[in-house]
From TrEMBL:
Residues 29-216 form the Transketolase N-terminal domain. One of its GO terms (molecular function) is magnesium ion binding. Its cofactor is thiamine diphosphate. Transmembrane segments: none annotated. This is Transketolase. Belongs to the transketolase family. The keyword Transmembrane helix does not apply. SUPFAM superfamilies: Thiamin diphosphate-binding fold (THDP-binding) (SSF52518). Keywords: Thiamine pyrophosphate. Signal peptide: none annotated. Pfam families: Transketolase_N (PF00456). The keyword Chloroplast does not apply.
Length: 235
């Protein structure tokens, strides 16, 4: 049992392996989780305008985890940033735990969507960006994290093809490239987004400064994609 002091103190990046280590049991999807760790940390630590206190604020940035079948890193980052109690982590995946093998937006504070089904997060992000535009809210950014294997799903390509011409410049997609896709894309992942009118860049998914520069790069009038390359899943 963690103490009140432990719960209230700020956790840093170096605490994440310990926080992830508190989650045990079957179906951890460890490689899928660790592939997202650095991207999630840089986003929540330096980019996203959302805090536990602002998670219901209409002006908050929205982060959608589409790659929801390996949520251990997501839960660790949410715990480090105070969205969920650290004491929840050891119960990961158990019957009465809010931290399921796939995140549930009703149970996990800070989670915008229930996720885990491949190919649905980016279309939801497009709809979210359109909804914010229709509400006259130009400031909130929409971020969605997908895996490269999700690009095997046609729903993502429909979303990509729509978002570019629609000029959804508050939409940002981070693709974790751990060489899991079944089908190669001509010219690479970034080229697929660029062909649809997106701004796109490919970076080292473990380099925090490179990630931050890519996340904050200007892209006026266009949605933005960041391809974060990490070690192959089966390496």
């Amino acid at each position: 049992m963690t103490t009140a002091a432990e719960q209230s103190r700020t956790h840093g990046y170096d605490d994440l392996p310990r926080l992830m280590g508190m989650m045990t049991g079957d179906e951890k999807h460890g490689p899928a989780a660790t592939s997202t760790l650095d991207v999630l940390w840089v986003l929540y630590d330096r980019v996203l305008r959302v805090t536990p206190e602002r998670r219901a604020d209409p002006a908050r940035d929205r982060f959608l985890l589409s790659k929801g079948h390996g949520p251990m890193a997501y839960y660790a980052v949410l715990a480090a940033k105070g969205f969920v109690p650290v004491d929840w982590l050891p119960g990961f995946g158990s019957y009465d735990s809010p931290l399921g093998h796939h995140p549930d937006r009703v149970l996990v504070p800070g989670a915008e969507i229930g996720s885990g089904s491949l190919g649905h997060g980016l279309p939801i992000a497009v709809g979210t960006a359109l909804g914010l535009r229709a509400q006259g809210r130009p400031d909130p950014a929409v971020w969605v994290l997908i895996g490269d294997a999700e690009l095997d799903e046609g729903s993502n390509h429909e979303a990509i093809a729509f978002a570019g011409p629609a000029g959804l410049d508050r939409l940002h997609t981070v693709v974790i490239d751990n060489s899991s896709a079944s089908h190669a894309l001509p010219g690479g992942i970034a080229a697929r987004f660029e062909a649809a009118g997106w701004s796109a860049v490919t970076v080292d998914g473990r380099d925090h400064e490179a990630l931050y520069a890519a996340f904050t790069a200007p892209h006026p009038g266009r949605p933005h994609a960041v391809v974060a390359r990490v070690e192959p899943k089966n390496a």
